[in-house]
């Protein structure tokens, strides 16, 4: 004899424990070679710590995946895949929960829940997040651009990354891309090869080749470049930034015919002093702290940005006021200081004050992208260990609460610890001073050895060690 199972929606234990675990059910079944095909509240039952499916076939339309309701699917011409079961489970979880909508809302505003759902989805099934289609507006060969991203660490950010994740479209928006030091020449040549023409600002010459050297030596001490002042005013985020951590901004334009109309496309390549994350963390507000690498899209503050439609202003930003006002007009609610509840319950706050963060951590929203056709990065040198991850993903920060000029109020301050050494091809940010010191101490010893033994032509880069330091920290 067995205990009588109780249908899930009426079980007294239908709480966050079950909801969190149940997000794993479709992937567990799928990995075991099982497609449920008929997911509904009545044919799911649960013992604590044990999930059971029953054979009752209800065929309840409200819980079917949308793609299975098409005429083509009804005719049996649509293959049932994991994504369909996952969508059905999500529909059940938000259907008439006895514990109240607040618990479900709290659960689904948690970034790890998104990751549980997306982790086992093939990027090819995420049709709403088709990065190749998204990029085709600017580049006829998006895979070539993404291969460029893979080998240089080039990332997309600003309003374009926000549109991709939010599934919106701003016709007036440009494409802002951010380059690590040493890759600028290659990126600009690639952009120009697709018919874009360089449009210099008043402090630049007509030919960018006269300003950018193809020869970059990462084995010499990395000093902070003094950036030339950019006086030319633009409407986009990047050009208005006038940040000390931006080396230069290169603007390219081309005209194309779309739907019978002549459209001007603009791409801005932002050359960063240290790395793109360092620049992005100094944006005007949190709602634009999103990036797209060659293999994934990341939102640093997804609950605030996409669930609450709120943002926190970052003090010290050199953007003109109308740049932030543009996002208010687009529907975001902007805070100038932390709310009391943010500081008393930091882990429940969408801004996570004083919480150490990493790109791609459990508080981020990470959307994997289909990398079919993308040429992966090769080893940086014959003696260097190859790594496949994007350099931006190995960066971290902490949003500190700093006292403001107003009594009892606090403003955010992005705190980072820079690692810039000749041992690593790229520069990195970490949220911990102790981790930074550990890496730098090791790097100084390693650098001394190599500067004594070899020259630039035989150099070894040790970037592959960065995630290993983070694992043991």
What does this 3D model show about the protein?
- About 11% of the residues have low confidence.
- Helix 2 runs antiparallel to helix 4.
- The relative contact order is 0.09.
- The protein is globular and about 70 Å long.
- Helix content is 29%, strand content 18%.
- The strands form six sheets. A five-stranded mixed sheet has the order 3-4-7-6-5. Strands 8-9-13 form a three-stranded antiparallel sheet.
- The protein starts with 15 loop residues before the first helix and ends with a helix.
- The chain contains 17 helices and 17 strands.
- The protein has 473 residues and is an alpha+beta fold.
Distance between the termini: 51 Å
Low-confidence stretches: 5-16, 46-59, 96-101, 225-242
Number of strands: 17
Strand content: 15-25%
- Largest sheet, spatial ordering of strands: 3-4-7-6-5
- What is the structural class? alpha+beta
Provide mean pLDDT, rounded.
81
**What is the number of helices?**
17
Helix content: 25-40%
Shape: globular
- Work out the radius of gyration: 25 Å
Largest sheet: 5 strands, mixed
């Amino acid at each position: 004899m067995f205990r009588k199972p109780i249908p899930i929606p009426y079980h007294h234990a239908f709480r966050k424990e079950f909801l969190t675990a149940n997000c794993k059910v479709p992937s567990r079944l799928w990995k075991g070679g099982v497609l449920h095909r008929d997911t509904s509240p009545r044919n799911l039952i649960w013992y604590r710590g044990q999930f059971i499916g029953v054979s009752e076939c209800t065929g309840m339309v409200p819980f079917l995946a949308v793609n299975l309701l098409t005429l083509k699917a009804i005719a049996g011409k649509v293959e049932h895949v994991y994504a369909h079961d996952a969508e059905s489970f999500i529909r059940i979880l938000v259907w008439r929960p006895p514990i109240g909508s607040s618990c479900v809302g709290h659960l689904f505003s948690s970034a790890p829940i998104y990751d549980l759902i997306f982790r086992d989805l093939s990027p090819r099934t995420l049709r709403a997040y088709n990065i190749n289609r998204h990029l085709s507006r600017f580049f006829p060969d998006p895979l070539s651009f993404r291969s460029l991203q893979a080998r240089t660490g080039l990332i997309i950010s600003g309003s374009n990354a926000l549109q991709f994740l939010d599934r919106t479209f701003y016709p007036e928006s440009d494409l802002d891309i951010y380059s690590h030091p040493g890759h600028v020449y290659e990126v600009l040549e690639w952009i120009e090869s697709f018919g874009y023409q360089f449009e210099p600002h008043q402090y630049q010459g007509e030919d960018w080749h006269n300003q950018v050297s193809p020869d970059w030596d990462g084995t010499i001490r990395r000093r902070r470049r003094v950036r030339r002042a950019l006086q030319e005013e633009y409407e986009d985020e990047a050009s208005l930034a006038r940040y000390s951590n931006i080396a230069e901004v290169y603007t390219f334009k081309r005209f194309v015919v779309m739907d019978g109309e002549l459209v001007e496309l603009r791409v801005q390549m932002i050359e960063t002093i240290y790395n793109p994350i360092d620049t992005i963390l100094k944006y005007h507000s949190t709602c634009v702290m999103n990036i797209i690498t060659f293999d994934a899209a990341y939102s640093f503050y997804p609950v605030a940005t996409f669930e609450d439609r709120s943002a926190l202003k970052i003090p010290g930003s050199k953007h003109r006021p109308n740049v932030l006002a543009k996002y208010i007009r687009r529907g975001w609610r902007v805070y100038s200081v932390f709310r009391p509840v943010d500081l008393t319950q930091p882990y429940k706050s969408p801004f996570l004050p004083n919480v150490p963060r990493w790109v791609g951590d459990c508080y981020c929203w990470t959307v994997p992208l289909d990398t079919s056709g993308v040429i992966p990065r090769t080893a940086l040198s014959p003696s260097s260990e190859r790594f496949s991850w994007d350099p931006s993903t190995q960066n971290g920060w902490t949003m500190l609460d700093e006292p403001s000029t107003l009594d009892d109020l606090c403003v955010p301050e992005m705190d980072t610890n820079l690692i810039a050494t000749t041992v690593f091809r790229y520069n990195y940010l970490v949220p911990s001073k102790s981790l930074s010191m550990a890496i730098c101490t090791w790097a100084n010893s390693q650098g001394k050895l190599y500067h004594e033994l070899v020259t630039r032509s035989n150099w070894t880069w040790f970037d592959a060690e960065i995630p290993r330091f983070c694992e043991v920290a």
